[in-house]
Design a protein that fits this description.
Length: about 280
């Protein structure tokens, strides 16, 4: 009887223990994020060469751009494909209500406020972020991080803060290339393939597109880059279990980063454009 009671108590305590472990892990990651953000000025002053090296690797990669080594080509291709589908569905939807002249307006709003920042964030997470997790995780399981600490080199500024700075710096030109690709792709589908009026499309596009929207969109892209870098660096920093553990950490980091991008996208959209967004130049 006592054995059965003990087993039942163990089963009942397991969810509580699991919840406690999850909360401890969450606290560990939040502490890592705070320490990384706080150490950014220190990294800028002490590890400038390492920051420049990380910027080069994030932008162009260690291989040639044509072979997919860098993030620029990936973002350009993803933006072309996503904006092309946006143009197709926009044209189809507006044709149903007889408002195809508004396609330029929807292109300016959707590409600028939502599509381009999210695409560049997902590309950074899948290409750059997973690389961060793998690099730092490999250093963790081979005791290189402990070696850095033993040499009085602060590991979080050296490994995480430098990569966060590089991601935030590189995301702006990469984002602008992706945004340009989105604009060109949507216009190509609507004007060239579907035969819409180029003058009407351009009129509503420039009427709605404002410098404020571009600024807010860039802020979203930088916020996404910072979150992606922090999440992936944290999972790599606390990786364990050998090479298999690093691979599992990379997968968990990617899932967490994509979920964080979705939640943060909604919060930033409401914070920057309000709960009831206005369309410039349209009076609505």
């Amino acid at each position: 009887m006592s054995t059965d009671v003990r087993l039942q108590a163990t089963r009942l305590a397991q969810p509580i223990r699991q919840t406690g472990d999850n909360l401890a892990t969450l606290g560990m990651h939040v502490t890592f994020y705070c320490r990384t953000i706080a150490s950014i000025p220190y990294a800028l002053t002490r590890f400038r060469k390492h920051v420049i090296a990380q910027i080069s690797e994030v932008s162009f990669g260690t291989q040639s751009l044509l072979s997919g080594g860098g993030t620029i080509g990936i973002v350009f291709a993803m933006s072309l494909a996503a904006a092309m589908m946006l143009g197709v569905e926009t044209q189809r939807g507006l044709e149903l209500v007889g408002m195809t002249t508004m396609s330029g307006m929807l292109s300016a709003v959707a590409n600028t406020r939502e599509l381009a920042p999210v695409v560049v964030a997902i590309a950074l997470s899948a290409k750059v972020g997973v690389g961060f997790t793998a690099q730092i995780g490999a250093m963790r399981i081979s005791d290189e991080i402990d070696a850095l600490d033993s040499m009085a080199i602060k590991s979080i500024p050296f490994l995480a803060a430098t990569r966060t700075i590089a991601a935030m710096v590189c995301v702006i030109p990469i984002y602008m290339i992706g945004l340009l690709a989105s604009y060109l792709s949507t216009r190509l589908v609507v004007v060239v393939f579907n035969g819409a009026s180029a003058g009407t499309y351009d009129y509503f596009f420039h009427l709605v597109l404002t410098p404020q929207d571009l600024l807010y969109s860039g802020i979203k892209a930088m916020a996404f880059a910072m979150v992606v870098s922090l999440v992936h660096c944290a999972y790599g920093y606390y990786a364990s279990g050998g090479p298999a553990g690093v691979g599992a950490a990379a997968g968990r980091a990617l899932r967490t980063a994509i979920l964080s991008i979705g939640v943060l996208d909604v919060l930033l959209t409401f914070a920057l454009w309000g709960l009831v967004p206005e369309i410039p130049g349209m009076g609505v």
